[in-house]
Amino acid sequence: MSRKQVVIIGAGAFGLSTAWHLLKTGRYDVTVLERSPEGLAVDAASTDLNKIVRSDYSDMFYARLATEAIAEWRKPEWKGTYHESGVVVLGDDSATGAYSDASFENCRELGCRVEPLTDGSAIAGIFPSGIVTGHIKSTNVYINRDGGWAAASEAVEVVAENVRALGGTIINDAKVKTLHKDESGKVDGVILGSGKVMTADLVVAASGSWTPSLLPEYGAAQRMIATGQSVATIQLTANEAERYRTTPVVLDFASGWYGFPPNKDNVMKVAVHHAGYTNPQESSIPGIAPISTPRTAVDGGTPGTAIAKAMVLELRQKLKEIYPELGNKPFNYTRMCWYTDTPDSDWIFDFHPEHPKLLFATGGSGHAFKFLPILGLFALGRLEGTLDAETAGRFAWSKTAGKLDMSRVGQEAKLLVVDDLAGPADLEVIDIA
């Protein structure tokens, strides 16, 4: 039996994990198209210093999947890209506090090494000796030792190496202009910006936050939206990095703020998981409303990595609250990390209802990277009809939105305004009382 020809749009987490799992079956020939001139989706959400790897979900469906993914992360094939530092979860008495409570109970039921931190002494005890922590409220606080962080870009490169080793092809500077249709009007390939047509037995749209603006005529903008999230880093001295190296990941569900231990280059990243920013742009398709589109350096955004001044202040204030010694250090880099948000934060692994050769693998909603080792299994399962009913329903293209994402409840995205973006001076040392 001849192998099916598969073209995947996007060399990010969804695209590469899908390619890898398809190739492992031996039943598919896979070509991955990446618009970046070089590298692997250099402005994708997956191309990052690090991502949290956690099983802390109020929804047991994702908590269980995350424990499966963590078991994979621990295997040697990931070449040490996963660091099990533990994750400290901070909640409060709001709806996000209920999220952390439910997360704790789910993790405990799954056998994770979770421990409630009921007072200041218990909280201080999980940080290395000599690390000064600020006032961390002890309501809804716990540590999950079965979690940590992954060196994101390095992990994606591991998957890319696996794809190539299995005979897959990754083509750079291959910007998809639109999808190609056969004589009956059904999708059967892609048309590149160069005019080249590539036909296939299956097209996988794994184009992340560019999916709504790339495929508006297929209803993608009604199913998902691109939102920009704010990231900043600080460069620690060698001495500082050594002291903070073994700190856990800190995740504050109340504010959305989270911070990592320093990486091998002594860089500490902080970010906010919230409703984010939208960047509406006119669609190339007449009659379609403006679509939120990522604004990145690759797309010519100037400055392409800037975040809002308000977010610089928010990131710094929370950093000082958690680690007072570091709160006034300058940020040396910022970035807008573009999510592909669905209404209920469920991912999409499904065929387009009118195009049987078009499979969507997207909708990460800011929480998919931790599942990198197993993400592609859902695309494979949908393709071959082996997903169980609950999973297929969760990831369906046509469905009524499920439960609200309680980690971002009550939030609304803001409009990205270029004049409000931070410049170099805004990243310098600021004395915050």
UniProtKB/TrEMBL annotation:
SUPFAM superfamilies: FAD-linked reductases, C-terminal domain, FAD/NAD(P)-binding domain. Residues 6-376 form the FAD dependent oxidoreductase domain. The keyword Flavoprotein applies. Its cofactor is FAD. Keywords: FAD, Flavoprotein, Oxidoreductase. The keyword Flavoprotein applies. GO terms for molecular function: flavin adenine dinucleotide binding; L-pipecolate oxidase activity; proline dehydrogenase activity; sarcosine oxidase activity. Belongs to the MSOX/MTOX family. This is FAD dependent oxidoreductase. It comes from Calocera viscosa (strain TUFC12733). The lineage of its organism: Eukaryota, Fungi, Dikarya, Basidiomycota, Agaricomycotina.
